[in-house]
Amino acid sequence: MAEQFSDRVTGPRLFDRLKEYLPARLRGVPVVPVVRLSGVIGAVTPLRPGMTLSGIARMLERAFAITNARAVALVINSPGGSPVQSRQIYLRIRQLAAEKKLPVLVFVEDVAASGGYMIACAGDEIFCDPSSILGSIGVIGGTFGFQEAIKRLGIERRLYTAGEHKAMLDPFLPENPDDVARLKAIQREIHAIFIALVKESRGGRLKGADDVLFTGEYWVGDTAVALGLADAVGDLRSTLRARYGDKVLTPVIAPPTGLLSSLFGRRSPGAGSLATLDGISGLPDEVISALETRAIWAKFGF
């Protein structure tokens, strides 16, 4: 009887029973944490937070810190935005990948365009849906001209500056060709930085010529793969199961939740009080922000 009891509680059988109560990462089950990166990049107002490094850094750090992770998966759905925030997010992902020695797998949903594609380039591999939109490797800027409108309303523009170009591209003044030339020169510099980043990240996988890839044009999934902007068509679940087995766990690393987080986490540093607490003082900015955000998404049919 004692021998039978011993057989039941010792050796491999006991170990197998105990494994059932251990966390997945300690049971040898493959784990690939998932981070979702969605929205316009860097377009921040008190009620419309965009994607910024400060807003997502903690999620990235948590994902790369998971013990025994096999890789980190990024799910991207962004039409772009701030080139500075896009590059800073890209750099942080690559820094964490190098520190933890983990591959980064990017999965594009509806769109990874402009700054969204810049972030996607942080992946060692990029996967997309056949209908995903990728590319738009260029720089864009725009404003409005109101000088004729205020003239008809009998409004006089009074502007006082110190510095010859301080009022460059003021929407209430006539457009100055020299100012436009300066802006385009800045855009060309930013475009060159973007191109260099894509070439460094994608390397010999790029199949298209520069005058095709870097004109600001964008493509759907299969064409993007053919041009070397992505590696394959595939969804997250199927791709990870094929690579790491059917038991692979994909915990989603979520941003902070709760009432306080939803209130204070939606503020950017220096953004001031929430518009809901300031009355209607922030509404004009919110309306403009909403229209700009809508226009960025609409460019890609969304």
Largest sheet: 7 strands, mixed
Helix-strand string: HHEHEHEHEEHHHEHEHHH
* Overall number of structural domains: 1
Strand content: 5-15%
Characterize the overall form: elongated
- Low-pLDDT residue spans: 4-12, 259-283
Q: Helical element count?
A: 12
Helix content: 40-55%
CATH architecture: Alpha-Beta Complex
What do the pLDDT scores average to?
A: 78
CATH H-tier superfamily: 2-enoyl-CoA Hydratase, Chain A, domain 1
Question: Helices and strands: which structural class?
Answer: alpha/beta
Instruction: Classify the fold: give the CATH topology.
Output: 2-enoyl-CoA Hydratase, Chain A, domain 1
CATH class: Alpha Beta
Estimated radius of gyration: 25 Å
Total beta strand runs? 7
Annotation keywords:
single chain; 302 residues; alpha/beta; seven-stranded mixed sheet
Give the gist of this structure.
The protein is of the alpha/beta class and 302 residues long.
Describe the structure.
Helix content is 42%, strand content 11%. Strands 1, 2, 3, 4, 5, 6 and 7 form a seven-stranded mixed β-sheet that branches. The model is unreliable at 4-12 and 259-283 (pLDDT under 50). It is built from twelve helices and seven strands. The radius of gyration is 25 Å and the shape is elongated. The chain has a single domain, classed as Alpha-Beta Complex (2-enoyl-CoA Hydratase, Chain A, domain 1), CATH 3.90.226.10. Helix 3 (53-65) packs parallel to helix 4. The protein is an alpha/beta fold and 302 residues long. Helix 3 (53-65) links the parallel strand 1 (34-38) and strand 2 (72-78). It has helices spanning 2-9, 11-19, 53-65, 83-100, 115-120, 147-152, 177-202, 210-213, 221-226, 236-244, 259-264, 283-298, and strands at 34-38, 72-78, 104-113, 125-128, 133-135, 218-220, 232-233.
